[in-house]
Specification:
single chain; 282 residues; alpha/beta; TIM Barrel; 16% strand; globular; binds zinc ion
């Protein structure tokens, strides 16, 4: 494993330069010096097998590690059995598309508390995560890693402790630590290197050094209100935190090899490259 950097989706500049399809992204990313890409199925898994394979082939050719983001409307914390079944089916569809594309990781929002007790919501989400993993294995997608993500809004399941508890269910679960979300959820809590170190320490304490080394990272500057996350911004919008520089030195000091995905508003690839530079110079 090596540390990798890349964007979530295509930068505005990619389209400004006349490119029109993610099939063209691998070479573009490679020439920039990036080696990861996250493909979002946030609004639903709508891709044909042919298109998925046409994206996957050059991604592999240019050694761009591909992850996919499962639909945002998946809610594993729902108490309703029928809805839960549908949600597991959406995850299965995500896994199938991921396999066409050669992606090995599925990033997932665990779900909404829906005004209910957080512990109760978490209990449902954990049960459904187990079910989903079993269904993926039954369908031949056992090699795929599910990555539950830390979330930025109060009503969403996805506090750091909740994500770690879900990941304790199975070694194959990899936490997706979205530092922008944690910063927003903590009303601007990530200010110093120590603030980042505390998070990494918590991951290591619960899940061990090996899983810490290989976490999936989402990073962007995030605007927040008292309710948490409001909007993602670019690195140049320095009035918003957090700053990757503090995390860069921690990743280096701990000799970690995460995949670092940039979720900036428009400059995802440029900012991913900026993170790589900060890491190399840390
Ligand atoms: Zn996400």
């Amino acid at each position: 494993m090596k540390i990798r950097f890349g964007p979530s989706g295509n930068s505005a500049s990619f389209y400004d330069q006349g490119y029109t399809s993610t099939k063209q992204a691998p070479q573009w990313l490679y020439e920039m010096g990036l080696d990861a890409f996250e493909y979002s199925f946030g609004k639903g898994v709508r891709i044909t097998e042919q298109t998925a394979r046409e994206i996957g082939v050059p991604m592999a050719e240019y050694d761009i590690a591909l992850s996919i983001h499962a639909p945002y409307y998946i809610n594993l914390a729902t108490p309703e059995v029928d809805k839960a079944k549908n949600n597991v089916r959406f995850l299965l569809e995500s896994a199938r598309a991921a396999s066409w594309m050669g992606a090995k990781k599925i990033i997932l929002h665990p779900g909404s508390c829906g005004g209910r007790d957080r512990r109760e919501a978490l209990k449902y989400a954990m049960e459904r995560t187990k079910t989903a993993m079993a269904v993926l294995i039954d369908n031949g997608y056992g090699g795929m890693a599910l990555c539950p993500e830390t979330m930025g809004k109060g009503n969403q399941l996805g506090l750091l402790e909740e994500i770690l508890e879900i990941c304790l269910l199975d070694e194959k679960l990899i936490p997706c630590i979205d530092f922008g979300h944690l910063h927003a959820r903590g009303i601007g809590s990530l200010k110093s290197e120590e603030d980042f170190a505390d998070i990494l320490d918590a991951v290591e304490k619960e899940l061990g050094k090996k899983r810490l080394d290989n976490i999936h990272i989402h990073f962007s500057r995030v605007e927040y209100t008292d309710a948490g996350e409001k909007k993602h911004w670019d690195f140049k919008d320095t009035q918003f935190g957090p700053d990757f520089i503090h995390l860069a030195s921690q990743i280096k000091a701990r000799d970690m090899h995460p995949v670092v995905i940039c979720e900036s508003q428009t400059r995802m690839a440029e900012d991913a490259l900026a993170m790589k530079k900060m890491y190399l110079e840390a």
